[in-house]
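Reply to thread "Modeling small-molecule complexes from scratch"

Following up on the discussion above, here's a worked example others can learn from. I took a protein sequence and the SMILES for zinc ion and predicted the complex. Inputs first:
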Amino acid sequence: MSTPRPHHLADMTTEQAAEAVTASPVVLLPAGAFEQHGPALPLATDLVRAEAVTERVAERLSGRAVIGPSLPVGVSPHHVAFPGTLSLSVNTFRTVLREYLDGLYRHGWRRVLVITGHGGNNASLTTLAQDLLADLPDLQFAWSPLTTVAADVVARMPKSEVHGHSGEAETAQMLHLAPDMVHTDRFVPGTRDLTELDALSRLARRPGHPTLQVRYDRLSANGVLGDPARATAEDGAAIVDRVVAEVTDFVEEWLKA
Ligand SMILES: [Zn+2]
């Protein structure tokens, strides 16, 4: 890195950081995962997507938000059977994020938004948000997933009966955001039909509640749900544009609230 990136707290001096508290009252924190994404996508897929969306949101907000440190390793116990996957426990992930927040709070920030590319982080974010209501009532803590924000765009895409992790929608985002990191010559379908799943896994994939979690090595032999070969960069752009627009709109309203 040779030139300071705009909006990045890490690239500011301590004096610039002190000024940013007033000029840029929102801190954006990208959260990812370090986990298997099948034969064609890198372990950092969720972080790559979260950081790219965060970057675009910060650009749209033109200086009213700063980007804080990423959370590059997430909560991924359901993927640990696959080589390369690292996972933080729920408590460790929460503690690391909580200590980021304590530091930002100490220096004067009162609005923090986590943008997570990994659904396994959601439960920790929800419980931390609840604790913060009691512990730091004047800190406004928000978080957002990526793909589910663009559910209507994903609904219109061609995809398999079983789809999700490293499948059509996620691969599409990577083809748009980081095409050089996608091994298009290694696209292999994962689990595509409910009939490929055992009874317990079908129960885990049943929509609604009750909720049951199973490990991904039970859901899919290669770690993929869906067929990455059906993904296009155009669909990826539509998903990303939708997420960026929704999150930016939220922050605009937040700054007026
Ligand atoms: Zn992912």
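What I'd highlight from this example: Residues 37, 45-46, 118, 165, 170 surround zinc ion (CB under 6 Å). Residues 176 and 233 are 5 Å apart (CA to CA). Questions welcome below.
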